[in-house]
Amino acid sequence: MTDTLHIAMDAVEEAAKLLYIRALKVLPDDIKQGFARLDSTESDGLARSVLATMIENIAVAERTDNLLCQDTGIPIYNVTIGRNVSFDGWELKQAIRRGTERATREHPLRSSVVHPLTRVNEHTSCGLHVPVINLDFSDEDRVLRIEMVPKGSGSENGSFLQMLIPADGIAGIKRFVVDAAIRAGGKVCPPTILGVGLGGTSDLCMHLAKVAATRALGSRCADPEGAKLEQELGEAVNSLGIGPQGLGGDSTAFAVHVELAATHITMNPVAVNVQCHSARRASATFTASGVEIGF
Description:
alpha/beta, 2 domains, five-stranded mixed sheet, four-stranded mixed sheet, 8 helices, 11 strands, globular, 4Fe-4S, metal-binding, Class-I_Fumarase/Tartrate_DH
């Protein structure tokens, strides 16, 4: 009989707390390498100066154990459930919420979450349907992964959706994405990761755009046509001259990432979601050996 990995809810709560704090204070290595790559290829003098300042700000924040950005964002937890993993789903949801609240109160962090009508802030980084919890599944045996992404409003406000039709073709997709990058301009704190969701339904498409925006730099779309589109869009976006912080230059985006889903024969939804230069994330992997914290 196959052994089962039983997940303790106190461990989930503690992980949710630690991941929120870690994501806000430690930038993943792939993003630091992305900065180094842009810095080595940027041709504009002002843009190089801006990049140098951003790189130094990251170093100072980590050196002094401070936040990378004052915006603690909307807390998002992506939970991937492997085979032979046992837990109570409702208890998992509550444990993640408790961990989010504890991170905000104990650290303490500025709560950026308010009621959409009254604008009342509970000062817990929680509210109606927040934290956001997304569930997915994998074929890994006895593994549970929790990824935490604090999504700031500067980048999240750079979100766009259009319900294209098949006749718009690939040219229409490219035009929409490039237009979205122009509309976002410097408001999304470039250099960015531009996430593109293509296909599915309107809600799935937007979700895929966010999945794409929060993928690690250096990863590629699993679909060959999607990977090709990533390359072409990346070159197009970086030719716009928006540059770091919108002040001009070659370094508008670290990358453009694309995620695809099958869609209806009479439609082709396209969405853009932006991740700012402080592309924060952290993850915990639960196995029989314990809990490993990383990116």
